[in-house]
Amino acid sequence: MADEILDPPPDASPSPSPAPATPPPPATPAALLRPRREAFEHGLLPIPKLIFPEGTLAQTLAQLKEKLAAAAASPGGRVGAAALAEALQIPREQAALALATLAAVLPAEDPALGDGAGDDAGADIRDVLLFLYVQSYKRLVPRNAHKDSPAVADVWPSTSAFDGYLSALSPIQLVRSNSRRFMPSQADEEIHQLSYLQKHMANILTLLADSVEGEGDDSLVLTMETFEHLGFLVQFSEGTSLSQAATFFANSDPDMPAAPVPAAQVLDWMSQNIASALEYSAERSAAKESNQQTMSDLDVTMAEANASHPRSSTPSSNPAYYRNVTFVEGFSKTSVVKHASDVKGNSIKVLNCHDSVIYILAPLKYATVYGCSDATVVLGAVGKVVKVEHCERVHIIAAAKRICIANCRECIFYLGVNHQPLVLGDNHKLQVAPFNTCYSQLRDHLMQVGVDPGVNKWDQPFVLGVVDPHDSLSHPAGVSDVKAESATCLDPDLFNNFLIPSWFGDERQEPTCNPFPLPEIYGACQNKKRSALEDIQKTIRELQLDENRKRELATALHAQFKDWLYGITGTTTVSCPQLQAISASSTVYKATNHAMNCAHN
């Protein structure tokens, strides 16, 4: 799907007085160069030996290029995990992780690389060099620290010696800070990424260029094929390929290879387009700020924050938000459902949702869950990467190729994943469990995005460091060597199927339709609970109760179900030990309803 910029919606609220005249936003250029956010959001790994000092970055990668070219697995310049591990002096499993991450963020599928997991997988050396170069990128950080840190500490206790250095704003801080006004916006991040590319483009082109006979600038040239590899970092907003947009390669005869172009000419063209994009973004940001009322510096409660900042489940009017991303943002104490027809593009971001249940029942390439607390997020089928960051007491139910978990606390992940879950950053009390839900189109969605339900590595976390070198923060000496806290497996007795409501009248879903087979011990516990339910059904059917007692029993059973549904434990409504033992089962509602119907009859 081509990316299209969304124009801001008209302001429907009446204005008490004429607004001061403001300059109109700049017209959208016919072709706007943008950074590919996938490379920056999902392509960075906190492995120290992948990150080179900026002062020696170009020289180090030029030397690495020679090593990789000499060790390439084939004349086509393919680099496998063994060659990459030897060149970088890293363990082979880390090299394999790097190739798998590269495969997940390439703009198009590379058949020779696949998903990067095979022993014979090999990446194009140009893609490897671009991937390694972008590891030097530093993310934007919050613009200001929160002014009320002691109050925040009351609800976000510091249990780590590194909290002050490593943790960004907690979910509670995000609410208390007037709806993320301290966090970089999507527009801020894209401007930051463009500035990074503007600074480094000369070195990047030199790294990719081929040497030919000649003097000065004419000795380095780029072929059209090599030029297209820059699509790893940049793209045009309306979907035009780089070679078609570039005047020196446009309308090339497909039957005759285009002549190589001097790297200096390519640099001039790229620099002009990046400068135009930065100028346009700056003008749009200035126009937006001039139309905004200054926000109050006073803290707000969660209820006030939710009322003051409207919830959004569609792309923002921010010019940096495009139709290939769907946003679900700012929901509190509610349920949100997104089917395939509701999702625009191939990526979704669930941001700052609290005390809510979010159902994303659609095939996607990328998904991000950020800054959520006390919520359940269901992600139906994600073919590239799921990233979960800065969440607290959240249940994530995800079927995906890969998942990355960073800086989360007291979260449970119910996973169906083809690759090891990547765990990094400052985490506490994480638990993992097998995938535990289904819906009518799940198998079709898994097939569409290439997730294999026969392979599930939910219980094999791959743990990296507690420090992320890409976060632009300073860290105390020695912290970079500390490993992140890993996740533990959920007790099988606490494992339950999650029942997705039937959104359409013809849906009839049972927990047994889970496409990911359950491990034996978890399956045995589920069978035990089903047996307990059958015993309860039988007991209720055999009870000799008058109408008043039947109504009392029905009320008690339904109260138990509601307590389970909202995550409340320790109820005293029903004293039956068997019922309390299985009150968290996803089938209790149907079982008790059926039993009560039998009892009434």
From TrEMBL:
It comes from the Eukaryota. Residues 7-28 have a biased composition (Pro residues). Residues 526-553 form a coiled coil. Residues 1-30 are annotated as: Disordered. GO terms for cellular component: spindle pole. Residues 319-451 form the C-CAP/cofactor C-like domain. SMART domains: CARP. SUPFAM superfamilies: C-terminal domain of adenylylcyclase associated protein. It is found in: Cytoplasm, Cytoskeleton, Microtubule organizing center, Centrosome; Cytoplasm, Cytoskeleton, Spindle pole. PROSITE patterns: C_CAP_COFACTOR_C. Pfam families: TBCC. InterPro entries: C-CAP_CF_C-like (IPR017901), CAP/MinC_C (IPR016098), CAP_C_sf (IPR036223), CARP_motif (IPR006599), TBCC1 (IPR039589), Tubulin-bd_cofactor_C_dom (IPR012945). Transmembrane segments: none annotated. Keywords: Coiled coil, Cytoplasm, Cytoskeleton. Its main location: cytoplasm. Belongs to the TBCC family. This is TBCC domain-containing protein 1. It comes from Urochloa decumbens.
